[in-house]
Amino acid sequence: MKAYISADMEGITGLVDAEDVQPPGRDYERGRVMMTEDVNAAIRGAYAAGATAVLVNDAHGPMRNLLPDLLDPRATLIKGRPKPMGMMEGLTSAYDAVLCVGYHARAGVLGVLSHSFMGHEIEDIWLDDQVTGEIGLFHAGAAAYGVPVAMLTGDDTACAEMSAWDAGVRTVAVKQAKDRFAAQLVPVLEARAAIESTTTEALRALPTVAAPSPTRRLTVRWQSASVASHLTGLPGVARRDDRTVTVEADMLTLYRLFNLFLRVATAVTSNPPYC
What we know:
Layout: E1 2-7, H1 18-21, H2 28-48, E2 53-58, E3 75-78, E4 97-103, E5 122-127, E6 130-132, H3 134-144, E7 149-155, H4 156-165, E8 170-179, E9 182-185, H5 188-204, E10 216-222, H6 225-231, E11 238-241, E12 244-249, H7 251-268
């Protein structure tokens, strides 16, 4: 069995603030250790379930947060950016399961460090007519490869978002959101034990993957009309109103195109995340 781990940072055990998850934040270096150890817990759980290979994709921000010297040596790491497929770089239909570690809730939800891909540049995302964020888009992309998302860790709002998208995914809430930058924390050792045991359980009882629709519609509402204007220069992208663009394609094409959207938006704007 081959397992794929996509590791974000906002939903990692103990982390609640931009200072924890962004360089050069005063607690960022400690946050990197915390992130690496949550991922290690998932790796241990995967091997306990019979995994023969584990690939980890560093999927947060600069995508060079995980510490290779502290990472379980049985796993292989993808580090750095840009990556054509972003948070799901390296995933293929050869994998048997996906594990999402350290994920967070979408923009507009009162979760810890909640947002959708960019700090506040993206107001809303819809896949077909369902509002979504990083969790839903990743789940849909994995399904397009025929690979089930088996487990997700994060705060309670991220876990609820995943369960609403797919009730078959096991979740581990490592903190309870009190506000966007505050949470009641599960003790560290307890959280990591839960990640490890839930990973093992999830991989021993994988959910089925529904056949994806051949054509999906992605709609993104930006805070800046300038971003929407620039994106209409891409083939197939139409503007629904001054700040909203939409495009139709198969899911994997949409996911790759969306990563291009993010690069255009980053070039057009200079807003830091979490403001």
